[in-house]
Every structure is written in structure tokens, then in C-alpha cells.
Amino acid sequence: MQIAVLGTGVVGRTLAPRFAELGHTVTIGTRDPAATAAKEDYAAWQADHPEVGLATFAAASELAALVVNATNGDATLEVLAQAGDLGGKIVLDISNGLDFSGGFPPRITFPQDDSMAEQVQRAHPAALVVKSLNTMTADVMAHPDRLPDPGTVFMSGDDPAAKEVVAGLLAELGHTDIVDLGDVTTARGTEWLMPAWLRVMGAVGSPYFNWKVVR
Amino acid sequence: MQIAVLGTGVVGRTLAPRFAELGHTVTIGTRDPAATAAKEDYAAWQADHPEVGLATFAAASELAALVVNATNGDATLEVLAQAGDLGGKIVLDISNGLDFSGGFPPRITFPQDDSMAEQVQRAHPAALVVKSLNTMTADVMAHPDRLPDPGTVFMSGDDPAAKEVVAGLLAELGHTDIVDLGDVTTARGTEWLMPAWLRVMGAVGSPYFNWKVVR
């Protein structure tokens, strides 16, 4: 599958090569590819990962069947606005809307009857938005099998076929307990896991954990 | 230990006899004991559980070292105001502040920088408030061992000694992974697990599950 990963941060740099390793064709999307490629840390990473392409948000998305939003919540809407026509494409939204301006722990940037996923869906009504993977750190997204138990990964979205594709991708990554919560509004549930996630990280002293629904 | 369980609903009726079974002296607190005892369903339940006492909120709390708030969030502050002087007592707060007036799923009744536990602590500054057990259904609180894995139970509170007592009680109930998140403000994390909990209940078709932090 042709996959665009929008965002050059930790999440993007973790998922992009993992998808490539799984046999997908992966291009990272960024605002200014020349500027990104010229950054010392990105250039070093790129040298280690020649299998991952780099292009503008729009060029990366154009040929992709699946566009991964791996940007911070505060950049999400602006970045996706630069990604061209997302109609008919699966948009895998991993973002969390967090405001760190008041210190730690950050605040959620939207009211409880909204979510990042719904904001993305409203901005791109013809896109097939699926919220997933936002409830764990990047290393766990990419390699849940490295935990003693992979835990649970959730999906929220309006399009069943898009969720089926995402579920297949999640399974390829190593996720074994994939819970479809329902339509895109159910992302309100998982996006509000973040306040607890941040406190658990503090208590267990590491981001390297996952939620599991034991039943 | 002498324990008061405030609230005659499902949570109170599940926990009270379980604590008694574990060897504690348990009194359920209610607004009007005569009226509660006269209710047909309560009378039938009481006949099955003669080991559990019934008294006013104040009388039940007076002799208790540990007062369990097993009321709904919307009744919590009013009930605890009737419980007499809670200074020096451990108040185990299980409440969730949910408003069902707009249908399902309910809304959280407080802003993200507050919690039921903090409201209780502010109203009773000398009480030793510990938030716990609010992230699971009553049967799982009382018998986590009946799940394939007991999962994780969280604690939030300002008083380390009170949390130690609560941790002991949780262990007696069968909880094996007890995570102390920190001070009472960390209840903001677990109280905001409810929106996800409600969607997971919908997806798995049962309230009989628990969160587990796999790490």
C-alpha cells in the first residue's frame, strides 16, 4: 500500500520505516522538503532510512491510499489543509490535542463533546478518518510485541471499510487486540485517555506501556 | 476495621458485604434508615446480608476509620456534608461525576482541571481523601479475581498513610496491580477514563472488564 506519513517528529520517524519494513511504499510529508532534508538530525536519520521518501504534504498524500496524521494536535488542521484533496483517502489520525503552555500536565485543547478526529473529519468531509494508535507512545505503536503483552488498540471512524484496512495495518504492526469503538465520535473516549496516560507515565516512570482491556 | 459505606445503590450493596466477608465491621449509611429499610428491594437484600448494618450517614461514619463514598457524583457533596466530621478519617471516594440528562454517553460534570476527589477534599480539608476503584464496575471492584486477569487499580490522594490503608484493603479484595498515581489532583486522570470506559463497554458489550497497564 502507498502510505503518506505527515510529520517528521518521533511518531513519523518511528512509523514510516516500520511501514516500509512491512512492505509498504512510504513517503514522509513535510512543509518544505529541502529545509527538512537540510536539518542535521533529519539528514542523519534519512541516511539510515533510504527506503522512506520525503515530499511536500500534498505530494506525499497525492499518491497515497492511506495518509497518517502524525503531527502534533496544534498543527494538525493546518497541515491537513496543505495535503490536497483527501476525499476517498483513509486518514489515520494519531494526533492528541494537548496544550503544554501551562506546564505539565498539558490541557486538552477541545471540549469534551469534540475530538481531534471529529475536527479532522469536519474539515475533510470526504476523507475516511480513522482514529487509532493515539493511546500509546510511538515505540509501542510500531512494536507492541516488545511489551510483555501487546495490550489493546482502539479504532474510531465512520467508514467500516476504512477501519478494516486500518485493522489490517495494525495487525501487521503486531497488535492482537483491536477494539472498534464505533463512529468517529467515539474518539472522544480515547482522546480523553491522555490525562490518565500522562499520570500513569509519571507513576510507572516510563512511557513504555499500553492500556489493555482485560475481559 | 470499622467501615462506613455511604450509598445504598449497586456499588454500596456490592462492596459492603464483601468488606464484611473480609472480616471488617460494615455499616451502610443512608439518609433515612427507616425509609431505606422499608423499601422492598432493600429489605430483601438486607435479609440476605444481616452482617451489614444500616444507619444514618453520620451515625455510620462516626465510628468508622474508613468512609466509602459509594454515592453518585451528583449526590456526593450533599451526602458527605451529612456525614459529620470526617477529619482524620480515610474517605475512599469511588464516585464519578456524570450527567445523564443529555442522554448516553453522559457528560463529565466538572472541568478538566478539577475532579470529584478534589471537590470532596476541598469540602472536607481534614479528611484523608483517597480516590480509587472508580475505573471499574462494582463486581470488578469486589472480585477482580473473577476476570482472566485482575487488571490495574489506581489510587490518588495526598496522604501516604491513608493510601497504604486503602492499598491493603484493595489487596484484600483481590487487586494485585495497585498503581499510586500521586496526589489528589491525579484523580483528574482516572476520572476522565470514564468517557473511554463507556465506549469500551459499548464495544465489548459488557461492563465486566478492567483496564490493565501492561508494561
Automatic annotation (TrEMBL), chains A, B:
It holds the Pfam family F420_oxidored. Keywords: Oxidoreductase. It comes from the Bacteria. The keyword Oxidoreductase applies. GO terms for molecular function: oxidoreductase activity. The keyword Oxidoreductase applies. Residues 2-97 form the Pyrroline-5-carboxylate reductase catalytic N-terminal domain. This is NADP oxidoreductase. It comes from Nocardioides humilatus. The lineage of its organism: Bacteria, Bacillati, Actinomycetota, Actinomycetes, Propionibacteriales.
